[in-house]
């Protein structure tokens, strides 16, 4: 079976596919309009952010599956895939920790005014009074709309900073330290 990987992908995962007998065509620089010409005999297409449009799906003579190595399907023409009988799947939750860490880092950066501090520092300006006046996160409240995989991870990190966490989600998960609001 042939796999077209049309986005950046970790070498160890590519090797795992090869070790399991897959014929892997790794072409990480393909764009949306390049995929139709590259996927003619592929059984599977794997992407991360690259769009897989109807032309790509229809060009795949053997295409059985389009995989989004990430959450969501917004970059795959699911309607065209469904019409052709091609399955579409994703890998939700695999990047939850990384996204939650980034969100927490951005929250800290805003509180500590790190971007402004770095900009001034690079201009040889050191304004200790301005940049040491952060409010801090301890005791603050963080609201999370959508307490799914990422929201749960973010809540855990916010609690570690001593924050109160409020959440809104149609599906309420108990035991994760979130006070739900309606």
Largest sheet strand order: 2-1-3-4-5
Sketch the topology as an H/E string, one letter per element.
EHEHEHEHEHHHEHEE
Anisotropy-based shape: elongated
Number of helices: 8
Termini Cα gap:
49 Å
Mind summarizing the main beta sheet? 5 strands, parallel
Number of strands: 8
Whole-angstrom Rg: 22 Å
Provide the fold topology.
Blueprint (H helix, E strand, L loop, with lengths): L1 E4 L5 H9 L3 E4 L8 H4 L5 E4 L6 H6 L5 E4 L9 H7 L2 E4 L5 H16 L2 H9 L5 H4 L9 E5 L3 H12 L3 E5 L10 E2 L2
Parallel strand pairs: 1-2, 1-3, 3-4, 4-5, 6-7, 7-8
Helix pairs in contact: 5-8
Polypeptide structure, described:
The chain has 182 residues and is an alpha/beta fold. Helices cover 37% and strands 18% of the residues. The chain has eight helices and eight strands; from the N terminus they run E-H-E-H-E-H-E-H-E-H-H-H-E-H-E-E. It has a five-stranded parallel β-sheet, sandwiched between helices. It starts with a strand and ends with a strand. 22% of the residues are buried.
Characteristics of this structure?
single chain, 182 residues, alpha/beta, 5-stranded parallel sheet, 3-stranded parallel sheet, 8 strands, 18% strand, elongated
